[in-house]
């Protein structure tokens, strides 16, 4: 029995201990919670961001647009033989610059010289007949007046004189034709330009089937051809109508030629022709510019870029490209408000100008746009301006040589 009592006591003791421990734990939890609420820290103040800004200013900015272009000789002449015969000699050097009147080819003159000599002899014979007919007419007239000869004799003498005179003129014309053919044996350049390769070799018999001998291409002025799409043309018209772009006076746009290495050709051209017909195959209009090329640097069929200049964008707003960011709702910039806080501002960017964006909507002169440090900004946080950059794209600046065709916006 005593053993049983001890066992019962031993079983009751852990139960009481567990209840007591649970009560203590609840009390401690209440104390801890209360203590934690009493010591909770206030919300942290917003972090200040350091940024670089640019102050927006409206100014008139020259704008340009670039297109892929190809050169074309303003006058490429096909040199062809005018008579049939054997080609004696090529006189010029292929690919060299020739002047107007320089001899390019010589053909065998002997057959044509024979024709000229025969025509000279025929002319001399006709002239002798004419002289005889003239003397006969002069004798017949007084004798007819004295009725020594009949009127018919006078008419016959007069008719023979007129016939021999016409024969003389015919002989002269035949002689001139043969002399002309003889002159065609010396083939000269009709223009100053660069001569192409010889298409026929010395000793070849030249006829109507192989009469082309070479070409001569005029180098100055040089034509620069490029194409403008229908959409670009319409967009330009719309911007001009809205006053967003002011064309040059009289519509005389200038053309700068950009070489393959990016340098600007020293001579500026002008647009001389715009094809009024739309090309349905390419969806473009052909435009041609004429550029002086006195040193022959430009050669036909070169691929280069043409920059159209002369237009002005009045009161344009420009910001550096790196200040414009893209979001789910489009382009935006960060602006430092008057109270020194970050403000997200949606904008409409409308093309590049060098390293800057044209901004059509969203900014006004005097706004301070964040250039560097915008990636860490949140709306409403205080901003410390550590540097202020000058306004973007000073007046008269030109876009870089690699500017795309969207430069004009």
Brief account:
The protein is α+β, with helices and mostly antiparallel strands. Helices cover 29% and strands 34% of the residues. Helix 2 runs antiparallel to helix 3 (151-183).
How would you explain this protein's 3D organization?
By secondary structure, the protein is α+β, with helices and mostly antiparallel strands. It folds into four domains: 52-61 and 315-389, conserved putative lor/sdh protein from methanococcus maripaludis s2 fold (Beta Barrel), CATH 2.40.420.20; 65-73 and 219-313, Efflux pump adaptor protein, beta barrel domain (Elongation Factor Tu (Ef-tu), domain 3, Beta Barrel), CATH 2.40.30.170; 79-108 and 185-217, OB fold (Dihydrolipoamide Acetyltransferase, E2P); 111-182, Helix Hairpins (Orthogonal Bundle), CATH 1.10.287. 29% of the residues lie in helices and 34% in strands. The chain has helices at 2-38, 110-145, 151-183, 230-242, and strands at 49-55, 58-73, 76-80, 85-90, 97-98, 103-107, 186-188, 193-195, 205-206, 212-217, 222-229, 254-258, 269-274, 284-291, 303-320, 325-327, 330-336, 342-346, 348-353, 356-361, 368-372, 383-389. Strand 19 (348-353) and strand 20 form a beta hairpin. Helix 2 (110-145) runs antiparallel to helix 3. The model is unreliable at 1-40 and 393-409 (pLDDT under 50).
In terms of topology, how is this protein built?
Layout: H1 2-38, E1 49-55, E2 58-73, E3 76-80, E4 85-90, E5 97-98, E6 103-107, H2 110-145, H3 151-183, E7 186-188, E8 193-195, E9 205-206, E10 212-217, E11 222-229, H4 230-242, E12 254-258, E13 269-274, E14 284-291, E15 303-320, E16 325-327, E17 330-336, E18 342-346, E19 348-353, E20 356-361, E21 368-372, E22 383-389
Parallel strand pairs: 1-22
Antiparallel strand pairs: 1-21, 2-11, 2-15, 3-10, 4-6, 4-9, 5-8, 6-7, 8-10, 11-14, 12-13, 12-15, 13-14, 15-20, 16-17, 17-18, 17-21, 19-20
Helix pairs in contact: 2-3
